[in-house]
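User: Hey, quick favor. My workstation is busy. Could you predict this chain's structure for me?
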Amino acid sequence: MTTRAVYPGSFDPVTNGHLDMIERGLNVFDHLIVAVAVNADKRCLFTVEERLDLIRRSLGDRPNVAVDTFSGLLIEYMRKRQVRVVLRGLRAISDFEYELQMALMNRRLAPEVETFFMMAGESYSYLSARIVKEIASMGGEVQGLVPPAALEALRRKFGGTR
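Assistant: No problem, here it is.
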C-alpha cells in the first residue's frame, strides 16, 4: 500500500528547512504533495505561480513529489486528492501550540485525516520564510538559508541581497 501525505504551506519563499522536511518526509511516506496555499488575505512576496516554480526548480525531477495549489479548507483539498495524512513541521513550542489547534480542528472536520508532526532538523530550527524575507529586504545574507532558485528570486525582488 502506498502512503501519501500532503505538506501544505505558503512557501513564500521555499527555504532549505522546507526542502529538508520534504526529504525527511519521503523517508516516511512514499509520495508527498507539496501544496501551496492560496490565501487572498495574506500578503505574499511571491505570486502563487512564482512559488510553484521556485519549489519545482528546487526539487528537480522527483516522481514521488507533486507540487500543487489549494485554496479554502485543507481538508476539502485532501478529500479531493484522497489523501489522509498532513505532514507538518515543528520548530518550537510556539509552532506546536498553533499546529495542535489546527490538527484538532482538522480532526473535528475530517476524522479520517491524521496529522503527522516532524521536528525540524537542528540546522533549520530557527529558520522561517518570514525571517528570510526580512533579512533579504534589508540587504542581509540569505545564502545557505534558501535554495539557489529562491536566492536568485529574492535578489531580483530586493536587488541588494548578497
